[in-house]
Design a protein that fits this description.
The protein is of the alpha/beta class. Helix content is 26%, strand content 31%. The strands form three sheets. It has a six-stranded mixed sheet with strand order 1-2-3-4-5-6. Strand 11 and strand 12 form a beta hairpin. The N and C termini lie far apart (33 Å).
């Protein structure tokens, strides 16, 4: 799998591009800002964008959407309906037209299968995306920490249930969070206080 990690403004959100070399198709995850930089990275990789995935609807994960839509007018943008319903114009701005996706959905990007896991807690419609052995966790799971639950729509109980679910996934995965450094699922199972607490360790 082709993989590119970008850190974008306004507050250092991790944006990801992943793609399938055989089909030369790719997807963008959490375009928080710097649409020009994201598009330049896609062009450098020589790929065609077939989807934009939002792990949740917060402004710092969707900020580049207006410019990306102008450049990629036919590309679907996916967002969980619970976050679409929670938009308030500020923390969760109106993302424009989106396709709903939810727990258990599988979406193809070229020859890659994207598995959707609904992981509420940071927001009602937060999701994680599993692509092979890579797990895009948005603001649900960070290296050594977890997402905030004190913002509107947040729930400590819900995010702990989500972390418990992630901890129970089989095997190991590369963890690609919405902010800060990447990790692995096994490292978080062993060293992340919140995940250990959620798993009852």
């Amino acid at each position: 799998m082709i993989f590119k990690h970008l850190t974008v403004p306004p507050i250092g959100t991790n944006c990801y591009i992943f793609g399938d070399a055989a089909s030369e198709r790719c997807a963008i995850v959490d375009p928080g800002g710097d649409a020009a930089g994201i598009l330049a990275a896609v062009e450098e990789l020589g790929l065609t964008v077939s989807a934009i995935f939002l792990t949740h609807g917060h402004y710092d994960h969707v900020g580049a959407l207006p410019e990306l839509r102008r450049a990629l007018s036919d590309v679907p943008v996916y967002l969980h309906p619970a976050d679409k319903a929670a938009r308030d114009g500020a923390l969760i701005p109106d993302p424009g037209p989106t396709e709903d996706y939810g727990d258990g959905d599988r979406i193809l990007v070229g020859g890659l299968t994207v598995e959707v896991l609904h992981t509420p807690g940071h927001t009602p419609g937060g999701v994680c995306l599993k692509v092979g052995d890579t797990l895009f966790t948005g603001d649900t799971l960070f290296r050594g920490s977890m997402g905030r639950t004190d913002l509107p729509g947040g729930s400590y109980d819900a995010i702990m249930n989500s972390l418990k679910r992630l901890a129970a996934l089989p095997g190991d995965c590369r963890v690609c969070p919405g902010h800060d450094a990447l990790s692995t699922l096994e490292a978080e199972r062993k060293g992340n206080y919140y995940m250990r607490e959620a798993a009852g360790q």
